[in-house]
Amino acid sequence: MGVNAHRAFENSGSESYRKNLNPDPEHIEELRDASNKIRATLTSAFASWERRIDAGILFEDVAVASFAEGFAKPRLSPKFRGQGSYVYHTLNRPTHNPPQEMDFDDGMFLPSSFVTLNGHAHPIVASEGYFRLVEEALAPLCRSEGWTLNPERPRPSCVRVSLNNKRSHIDIALYAIPDDEFEVLVEKAARSAHSSFGDSAQASAILLDEIYKTITLDRIMLAHRDEGWKISDPRKLEDWFLAAVKKHGEQVRRLSRYLKGWRDHRWEKCRLSSIALMACVVRYFEEAGASVPARDDASLAELTRKLPQYLRGEIRNPVVQGRLDEGWDDGNAPLRPGFVQCAEELRDDVAAALAATDRTNAKNRLCRIFGMHFPDDPALIEIDGGSSAAILSSGVLGSLGAASDAQSAVKIGGDERFG
């Protein structure tokens, strides 16, 4: 005996865990409206930068010297593109609010001339001045809207605007791209759009995407408060995840959201990042290949059987050098053992729920695992005599609930990135 809980996770008709994780439409509209106001404010501020900030603050010394020699000061016209979970379609509504908030990541791309200093090319715009102009431009908007600029502390590689609803924020990453290449791509994309579409709105929508996708690799630079300019191409992570979805199907996206939902239910704050969980999901699909079950509940059981092993080892960044588990083993209270223990309990709890002999018992167990967003409806679960053997083979059944010492260990040093 056992149960088939696929419809409780995903179905096209009634309530499901996946649907319950979707943010409310009014919250999304609120984020979009705030993002549009921020973009309009920054576009205006950079167009009139000479009235707002001294050139010696905004630009590198070599650029300021060229202005003194009669070279024209540049016109600054930033472009914007959404990033992160909103673009990946993995954005979840928070479980513990506060402190959890929906996170909308927006990239600001500033076309700029580049200069070579000490053998390295970087923008003539100074990274410190870039942050300063953005924050000085947004401060009046935040005051008028009741928002908070950089709550708690400035993030090293973005500017955060916390909305007045206390349930969402917008992180603006500041990039620079070479203006000469940008202008060529604009002209090329405009010709292509003009030849394909008569409607200017359609053309402008294609224009941004065509430019973004064709900028030369390693020519996008990210402003960092402490380290200056860093090569950082946000397309790599987006392309990696969307390629995994294209190869393995929408279940990659759904299982990523289920793990994030479990994490957000389990901990109010946690350094088990969304991208680390997504990397584990993609690894599972790559290893399992064609043997991945079609049912979400069965596939989740197989994934959770592997998750403790994944979290014990290194979690490499899938697109650049580096790791996604940095800091998990630091200090007197390392985080990794707590993460592994909680993953083991998740494995055993999911197996026990799917091996239940009645629908209500299975539903109650799954609600305890995934929290308030899991549907409280036993009718979505079916008795399935053929499923228990496969589920029971996934791991040793364990007790429900986490040990309190494991929870406290994991909470140390937690961040606020959810969604």
UniProtKB/TrEMBL annotation:
Keyword annotations from UniProtKB, A to Z: Antiviral defense, ATP-binding, GTP-binding, Magnesium, Metal-binding, Nucleotide metabolism, Nucleotide-binding, Nucleotidyltransferase, Transferase
Signal peptide annotation: none
Where the record annotates domain Cyclic GMP-AMP synthase DncV-like nucleotidyltransferase, the positions are 78-175
Output the Gene Ontology terms for molecular function. 3',3'-cyclic GMP-AMP synthase activity; ATP binding; GTP binding; metal ion binding
Give one Pfam family: DncV-like_NTFase
Q: Where is this region: Disordered?
A: 1-24
InterPro entries in alphabetical order: DncV-like_NTFase (IPR048445), DncV_C (IPR048446), GAMP_synthase (IPR047805)
Q: Which reaction is catalysed here?
A: GTP + ATP = 3',3'-cGAMP + 2 diphosphate
Q: Which GO terms describe its biological process?
A: defense response to virus; nucleotide metabolic process
Domain Cyclic GMP-AMP synthase C-terminal, residue spans: 249-377
**Protein origin, superkingdom:** Bacteria
Database matches in NCBIfam families: cGAS
Q: What is this protein called?
A: Cyclic GMP-AMP synthase
